[in-house]
Specification:
By secondary structure, the protein is mainly alpha-helical. The protein is built from 1 helix and 3 strands. The chain starts with 27 loop residues before the first helix and ends in a 5-residue tail after the last strand. The mean pLDDT is 89.
């Protein structure tokens, strides 16, 4: 057999060194170093993320408390200094139209409100929009309550601080 132009050439068996198809695996020491490094990073980052979430909830709670306080004050201005009343653990007079006496309704006879669009905002510290009427202000047990604590005599409102 002759090898001429155009005929296929066969490479020598010694042209390529033997290839090993084995892949190098991680050693146990390398794996342990990675695990320890990840554990240290998690130990540093998790508390910072948790603190940031608490700060965000506190800011959101203050914003909602400010919104409620302003709505109650506007209601009092329109209703001869009377604060809205708690009905079914809520303040429906803030989210509906009312007349001068605070009765809820619609139409031209109910020109006041709504003071909050939608519904009473939830307290972000415990995700509760429940409004509890209290008899003494300021509340002595806000840390044991959820939702909002409301003193209808003056229209003051506080956030319940208990987490659910």
């Amino acid at each position: 057999m002759s090898i001429g132009p155009g005929s296929p050439t066969v490479p020598s068996p010694h042209a390529f060194p033997l290839r090993r198809n084995r892949r190098r695996a991680f050693t146990i020491v390398e794996l342990m170093i990675v695990i320890v490094a990840m554990t240290i990073l998690a130990g540093i980052l998790v508390p910072q993320v948790e603190e940031s979430l608490q700060d965000a909830n506190q800011s959101a709670m203050l914003s909602n408390l400010y919104e409620l306080t302003n709505a109650i004050e506007r209601y009092k201005m329109d209703h001869n200094g009377r604060a809205p009343q708690v009905i079914n653990s809520s303040l429906p007079q803030l989210v509906n139209s009312t007349d001068v006496d605070g009765n809820i309704g619609s139409g031209p006879g109910y020109p006041y409100g709504p003071y909050i669009l939608g519904k009473i905002p939830a307290n972000p510290l415990n995700n509760s929009a429940r409004v509890k009427e209290i008899l003494i202000a300021p509340p002595a047990n806000a840390q044991n309550e959820t939702g909002w604590l409301y003193y209808p005599t003056t229209g003051q409102i506080w956030a319940g601080e208990r987490n659910q």
